Amino acid sequence: MRGTLGVDVGTSSTKGVLVAEDGTILASTTRAHTVDRPRPGWVEMDAGIWWDEFRSIAQELIATVPDTEIVAVGVSGMGPCVLLTDADDLPVRPAILYGVDTRSTAQIARMTAELGVDEITRVGGSVLTSQAAGAKIAWVAEEEPEAWARATRLFMPASWLAHRLTGAYVLDHQSASQTSPLYDIENERWHAPWWQRYAERLEPPRLTWAGDIAGEVTAEAAAATGIPPGTPVITGTIDAWTEAVSVGAHESGDLMLMYGTTMFLIATGEQTLRTPSMWTTAGAFAGTRNLAGGLSTSGALTAWLKDLTDADYPQLLAEAEASGPGARGLLMLPYFAGERTPIQDPDARGVIAGLTLEHTRGDLYRAALEATALGVRHNVETMRAAGADIRRIVAVGGGTQGRLWLQIVSDVTGLVQEVPATTIGASYGAAFLAADAVGAPGAQPAIGDWNPIAERITPDPVLRDLYDALFDRYVRLYEGSKQVVHELAAVHRGA
What we know:
By secondary structure, this protein is an alpha+beta fold.
């Protein structure tokens, strides 16, 4: 039997799948991990964990289905992250994670002042935010000169795995387009003047597309993983984009909505749309562009409430369903880790309004689910105002296993969501890209055959007025509490 291996490094776990040529999952496994938060606003991870977990996963999957001939390997990972390595390919410091890490505020302000918002947007598509990997590179250069003096290369989780497997030094265009302001989105290349200004010590990685073959598994990597030497490995890309591939939500007019530790949205089109409150990026494939957004918390918020209340998810979901629409007068802002889009406010914080002594943990959990749904609606409305043509919405990720959360998002947004048969995530998309890369011309697999749509979630029209009013309050609550919340964020940083 022939198959492909797909591995994705996420925020809270690394997942792997072994997939047959027809898309059937032969085996899957997960390795849980945690990120480090050494200071307020910092979110880091030891990159050694990525390779160790990849090796362990590959060995387990191969042992589980030993008669499978692995014909290609797909890699994927959270991002945009900044992993800097020295001349011996050893990390000079822990990897700095994506927009949930907000340490580069000063660099964003300085770079924006030096280059100008209009020019940054013209070259890269987006204004600089906590998602901008280029600003985090500048942070290392300014704040950790000893580490910077040893840095020679830039990696992200997917490209690090590809490098450890093949020796190739590559980065996909999609990830590169989030290394703002170092990438020229219209010409699909590094922007040399700004690379030299802010990353002069680093060798620019060779740019390829996510599904391109980066190289072949080396003898050393084969010994470490059990994958046969010479097996092709794709370049890979950021997990949200790989997840969109896993469900076929990467065509013009598609919106992928990913339910995970954070919530992510990707609208795909052919034109470069620019708006200061969202992220403009290259697509996973040549000729496509994305308008993307992300909530800093979603699953992370529900997990926080689970741990805080010492209840399990089935209990909380049952109690939230009993609470009913509107959570009995509670309204929550889900900004417990700052917020990314569309408010782009790293100093935003969580707010729970309307609490009384009569409210229960079920009300709180319902309010948390509604808060993430209100955040999704805020992003979708901002995308459409920027010109995004959203004709089809596909829901993916671990959160799709809970029907209540899906229904609340559809009710709050008024949108129909399509749920595919397989929602295992980016590891499945990575396996598909690998299969596509080695498929015979004209005989590549189709994701619609691998992963057909299994369910459609439709909004309840009876709840439209209730959630329209709640959304209005949601927007006004942020504006009304922003000044006090920013003052409290400053106190938290000082503490």
